[in-house]
Amino acid sequence: MAGAKDSLVVMEIMVVAAAALVVHTLAATTYHVGDTFGWQVPSGGYNYSNWAAQHTFVAGDSLVFDFTTGAHTAAQVVQNAYDNCNTANTISNQVNGPATFTLAAGTSYYICTLHCSQGQKLVVSVGSSAGTPSGSPAPRSSPGSGTFSPPPPPSSATPTRAVAAASLIFLSVFAAFFC
How far does the signal peptide extend, from start to end residue (predicted)? Predict the structure, then answer.
């Protein structure tokens, strides 16, 4: 009788552990735009489209624009304003760094209102859930921004967060029954 009770306790612990891993796996992620480069005027061939192409964004994730207050801004804009570096009608303009934006599903456009024409701008495509792949559209050149190369296509071999979570649940249940 004690053996069956012990097995039940082990199974309960495994289910709780699996649930905790799923919650952690599906939790929103915070991305620092440009990583160590930060949010500044691109130089030396650097561009933010390549940075965005290296990440898979989902609704609820956050973008942090690291910049010195007074030196740059981070403004969310519509596509036309992004394409033309129009700073007149921003959706949200944050002038104090670091600035954080929470992502919603769809395509989001960000510019520095002071240096957009020099290539300090970012576009990201955001999936609606952890199982929806996303990437970033090919960058657009604007006057004075230099030549941008398109980002590499997303790898089809990269597992999504949902696949990883399902694998963890399966392995946990398997271990609970057979270990």
Answer: none
Domain limits, the chain? 29-150
- Per-residue pLDDT of 65-82, as tens digits, reads 999 999 999 999 999 999
What is the average pLDDT across 106-127? 98
What residues form DSSP beta bridges with 69? Answer: 72
**Residues belonging to the chain:** 179
What are residue 134's phi and psi, to 5 degrees?
A: -145, 170
Whether the pTM exceeds 0.85: the reply is: no
Neighbours of 171 (CB within 10 A): 13
Give the homologous superfamily in CATH for domain 29-150: Cupredoxins -  blue copper proteins (2.60.40.420)
CA–chain centroid gap for 68, Å, is: 22
- Give the pLDDT confidence of 34-46 residue by residue, as tens digits: 999 999 999 988 9
- CA 96 vs CA 46, 81, 114: distances in Å: 24, 21, 13
Task: Output b/e per residue, 53-88; b: 16+ Cβ within 10 A.
Answer: bebbbbbbbebbbbbeeeebbbbbbeeebbeebebe
